[in-house]
Specification:
The chain is α+β, with helices and mostly antiparallel strands and 144 residues long. The protein has one domain. It has 5 helices and 3 strands, in the order αααβαββα. The chain has a 3-stranded antiparallel β-sheet with strand order 1-3-2, with helices on one face.
Length: 144
């Protein structure tokens, strides 16, 4: 999975890159009906980014992702394949995944990782969270 993509990624990209959201909505009225789903995507992605932030701070983390959380699962798989595995080498990343009835249970440990790799991962996760915060602020400011 080289690219994280879903049906709302295009709209999120447009929102993130618009200069004037109110004007953008006037020119793209269909996006208004997509906002509840976009917010659901954001909620699920932020929940995963929060778990990765805990991993960054504690160097180990255990968490569940409900099987019904499609965007959270896809986002974690994207992070796993493109960032966890590329930043933390196989010797540095210890990951166990259990397939339970209604969820996947993850245990991650990066205590063996060199500090520079750990800081690189932390920087990436902070950027992801900031991007989500900016997106929510754009949507919030549109209704103020």
């Amino acid at each position: 999975m080289d690219k994280y993509d879903h049906e709302y990624r295009y709209y999120i990209h447009l929102i993130k890159n618009c200069d004037n959201f109110k004007e953008f909505v006037e020119n793209n009225v269909e996006i208004v009906s997509k906002i509840p789903q976009i917010l659901e995507v954001i909620v699920q992605e932020v929940s995963i980014a929060e778990k990765m932030l805990i991993l960054y701070h504690n160097k180990h983390s255990s968490f569940e992702i409900p099987k019904s959380s499609k965007y959270a699962l896809d986002y974690f798989n994207y992070l796993q394949e493109n960032f966890l595995y590329s930043i933390y080498c196989k010797k540095c990343l210890n990951m166990n995944i259990s397939d339970l009835k209604n969820c996947y249970y993850y245990e991650l440990n990066v205590e063996k990782a060199p500090n520079y790799r750990h800081e690189l991962f932390g920087e990436y996760i902070h950027n992801e969270l900031n991007s989500h915060i900016n997106l929510v602020n754009t949507l919030k400011n549109a209704v103020d």
